[in-house]
Amino acid sequence: MLAEMLGKIARDYAHERIKPFSNSDFGNFVRRDVATEAKKQLFGKPYELKLKASVGAGNWAAVPWLAFFDPLETETATKGFYVVYLINPQTRTVTLSMNQGTTAVYKEFGRLNGRQVLQRRALDMAQRVPEYAALFDTGTIDLGSDEDLPSGYIAGHSFGRTYSLSDLNEKVVCDDLEKMLAAYQTLIERGGSTPSDIMYAEANSSNIDETRRYVLSRKIERSGKVRREVLSVRKAVCECCGLDPQIDWNYRGPTINTPLGVHHCAPLQTLSEGQTKRYIVPDDFLVLCPTCHRMIHKQMDTSDVDHLKEQMRFKYLRLILP
Q1: How far is CA 55 from CA 28, 34, 67, 79, 86, in A?
Q2: Based on the structure, what is the number of domains in the chain?
Q3: pTM
Q4: What is the reported pLDDT for 218?
């Protein structure tokens, strides 16, 4: 059971990390068995999440973790925001946390300023989903280490729950996880840690609901996971103007890197908060060149590719010459 496994990590990690890291049975238990057990918590849930458990890369980490990533936001612990269990081996506690990728922020702002950025964003995140933050604790967490990454996790913590070994009841742990994952989905739908003024400017709207739907739609388009899925089933040719990168630009690279955009053409008004399935591949998508993609977003109906074709006033020379 998940609670029992998390308790084992918290109880045994300090002892296990004095052993060799390479080929560690305990390390394999965390990376494989704990992640597999955690995946069981997603069965029947309307979430498409990636999971990863880690005890370090090459050497034992100061803080082992188990994370849940929504590919629309991030697929790695180094950037974006995600749900994570953080283990304090010193106090033998487990913290369920809405947290953020530290590495990318450190790289952009430096360590000291980066922690301040993480703290500001953590507060914004909690305020964006107050109904969920109120179900958890918003105080500072203790991870038993002042190393760079744990310090970043502490700064990036938005809200969550810390369990002692005696608190790790299976029902309580699973109930809290379900609430936290619901908070995660809602936070993504409401713009995550992106400041409201930036969202309004991107959507060119002053209506918060319309803005959030627009931002979510663009997030879907920019997802690497979505792009891979769409380009695996739709031809890599612009579905409006007919631009074919292989013919018109002599493109010879992999399809995933083709200079075409994946357009989420489901009407924005159909994207409601809490919707269990945000998109359907390939029905909800068009493959468009950068120009057509930009222009279709200027239409009232961003799904009407036929109208966009009617407005087009150019042809490629290869379509004219015999």
Answers
A1: 9, 11, 12, 18, 11
A2: 2
A3: 0.82
A4: 77
